[in-house]
Structure formats: structure tokens, C-alpha cells
Amino acid sequence: MKKLLKKAALYFSLAVALSSANLHVRAADAAPPPPPKPSVEDRLTDLEAYVTNGARQTNAPTALATSSGPGHNAWQMTSTALVLFMTLPGLALFYGGLVRRKNVLSVLAQCLGITGLVTILWVICGYSLTFHSGKSFLGGLQWSFLNGVDSTPNTDYGGWVSHNVFSMYQLMFAIITPALIVGAIAERMKFSSILLFVTLWMFVVYFPLAHMVWGVDGLMNGVWNASAPIKAIDFAGGTVVHMSSGWSALILCIILGKRVGFGKQNMAPHNLVLCMVGTGMLWVGWYGFNAGSAVAADGVAANAFTTTTLATAIASFVWPMAEWLLKGKPSVLGFCSGAVAGLVVITPACGFVTASGALLIGIAAGLVPFFFCYKVKAWFGYDDALDTFGVHAVGGTLGAFMTGMLARNSANSNLATNLKDYVKDTMFQPLMFEQLKAIVLTLALAVIGTTVIAFAVKAVMGLRPVEDVELAGLDISEHGEEGYHGDSYGGGKLADVSHAMPQPALSPAKAAAATT
After folding, report:
1. Which pTM does this prediction carry?
2. 485 exposed, middle or buried (CB, 10 Å; 0-12, 13-18, 19+)?
């Protein structure tokens, strides 16, 4: 009996072992074969693509084929910080120095408020609506709350830059664009109304326009969308940023009306030192704005860096020289305005034009916006407080048009991908007419969208504070704070800027009477 039990146990053990071995064989048969190890050629191809910012080899199972490139990623993160630096503190100080002292904090609060508000909108759905594929006019919602936006590159927008870094980079563009509008309506719009206006404007104007120009299937993405109905180009935001904000600013300031005392009271800038400091910050930050739009540390970025420098420096010199000729003195404000105008006009062209093209753009940027700020504004009498229309709308439109004239294949070989029939390396090439189409569409969207939004906000909550509040200044009235305290400006809480301007000398008799 014991022998039978031992034999039965032995047979049972053998059966279990055979069954287990059979299961392992079946599992091995069902599992896919392991991927082949990449060859030396695959690895070298990936490395060469990284160095030259070429297309990655997605079929090669290497770490390099699925991760971001450290050098390109580092430049993109630096550029992201530089573009934020443009708004905070660059634009805030530039605008803050140009308003009267009783409204300096209101401008800073508006820049800060827009930064936080737009970031929230961007995370919820703004990024997805702008850059996810969808339709020609607007993207889908698959990336809402940045779902799926991780450190792996999205090759639709940058072969070697992390997707989340790219999304943060584009967020900085979305922040500064509505903040530019603040310049036209400074000193006379309620803070609450600005926040509501910006919220609606982002959905009606910015998100659709940015998708049309930069989205992978956008209506006007002539560089990368082979089926784009409008074969336009915009390297860093001539239409998306400057035209949209500048034309919207004009419409909003007209609907809002003029400041109390406009044309009768002294409304000169209260602190041109702040304005100049802000201008310098804008110029430095703009390298991230323009060169960073290459989405890589490559030759295209180097060209954009060079053309940005040339156009800006030339415009910053030409504007005050025109002032000197026509008004008798070259002003510091003229140097600052010229620099910003140069930055604006070169923006859509910087990655597509050569150094010689940048020279022409710099001269035009110093003359055309100056003429609009100096003459056209006076002719029509609109109260564009800080010349947002004259610099950004006019400059952005001029830049978009000149991009169509001066874009060259030698500056950016990507133009040959889908635009070989439009870029002929001549002054009056077919691309110029595509740019005109983009200009008209951008202008229509900005003007109509802003008009509808402005009147809607006006009907719901009003646009302006009461006259007494405006006269007292928005700093105290809306934020309960002052930018300056004590007698540093020779006055009390509500002292205005007029005392800071040069005053005519008193005669000896009047001086004696004043002292007695």
C-alpha cells in the first residue's frame, strides 16, 4: 500500500510539473518577441537628429528617440522665463512709468491679475483649444487640465522639447497679449471689468486666432499645414499677439471714452526712469519671445536672435531722430518707443528674414508707428493712453506685411516645405498676398470680437468707475494703496503729476509775493 501511495504521489508531481512547463511554453508563445536592440546606425541617426534639430527616429527603440534633448529643452525653459519677464516686470514697469502717479499701482495690478487669470484659463482648456488638433478655427479639448501633457516631446510642435515645457512657453504668450491692451485703456477702466473682458476676449479672439496661425491644422499655418487655406506665416506673433491686442485696444478705448480732463489737463508720464527700465527688460525678454519661437537652440533661433537685435536697435535710433527733426529734441520716451516698435515689427519676421531684411524693417519700424503716434492720433483724437494702437496694432500689421515681402529661403529652409510656390525670394512674391489675407482676417476677428465683448461687459457691469473715483486715482479707489508715500513727489495722497513737470520760473516780484 505504501508503495502504491509513493507511486501515486510521484505521478501527481510529474503531472503538475509537466502542466506548469506547458503553461510557460504557451505564455512564451503568446508574448510578443522583444524589440531588437538598436543598431549603431540607429543611435547615430538619433544623435545627428538631436544635434541638427532634425526629425527624430521614432521607430528606433532608444532613449534618445522618446525623450527631450537637454540643450533644446534648456533653451526653451530659459525662453519661457524670459517671456514671463517681459510681462512681469517689463511691461508692468514700462506702462507703470507712463501713467500718472495716482494710477501706477492700478497698471501693476492689472498685469498681475491678467497673469493669474490667463494661467487658470490656459490650464482648464485654453492650451487644448489652441494647440490640440481639431478644426481649422479651433482645437479640441483632449488636453484640458493639461491631461497627457507630460515631459515627452510632442513632435507636432517640437521634436526635442518636452510637451509640458512647450505648453508653459505658449502660456507666456497668452499672458502678455491681453496685458498689452491695458496700455490703451489705462487710468479709466474698472479692475473687475478688465478681468471679465479679458476672460471673454481669450475665448473669442486669442484662442481661435492662435490656433489658426500656430495650430498643427490651423487655417493660416502656412509653414506646417500643407492644406491650410491661407498660406500665411507668423514666426512669433505679429498677428496673434500684436495685431490682435493692438486693434482690440483701439476699439476698447473708443467705446470706453476719453479720460476725464483729456486734452485739458497735464497727463504726462510720471516717471520716465521706470519707463526706460521697463523698456530694457522688454528688450532682453524679447529674445525669448522671438528666438525661443524656433522651439530649439538651432540655426533658426540664431537667425531670429540676430534679426531681432538689428531691427530693434535701428528703430530705437530712428524714432528719436525723427523727433529731433520734427520737434526739436530727441526724447528718452522716443528712444523707448522706438525700441518697442522695432521689437513689435520684427516679431512675425524674425525667423524668416535675413539681416538685410531686418535693416529695412528697423527703419520702417522707427518711422511708421512714430507717424501714427505723433500725427494720426492727434488727427482723430482717440485717447489711446499709452500708444498701444500706434505701436502694436500699426507695428504688428506692418510687420506681418513686410514678412510677406522679405521672407527668404536662405533664412529658413522650412519655408520650402509647403511654401515653395509662395516664397520666391523677391520683393513682391505670392506670399505677400497670403499675408494680406491673414491681416484682414485678424483685423476682422479682433474688431468684431472686441466690439461685442465690450458692449456686453458694459451692459452687465459697466466699464468705467464714477468720475470722482477716476479723478482720485485708481490706486486708492480700487486697490486701497499708493505707489508713493510722503513728500517724495511734493504732495499728499492725491497729488497729481503736474508738479513733476518743469514749471516756468517766477518773476522776482511774484516770488517775493509767494514767500510773504
Report:
1. 0.87
2. exposed
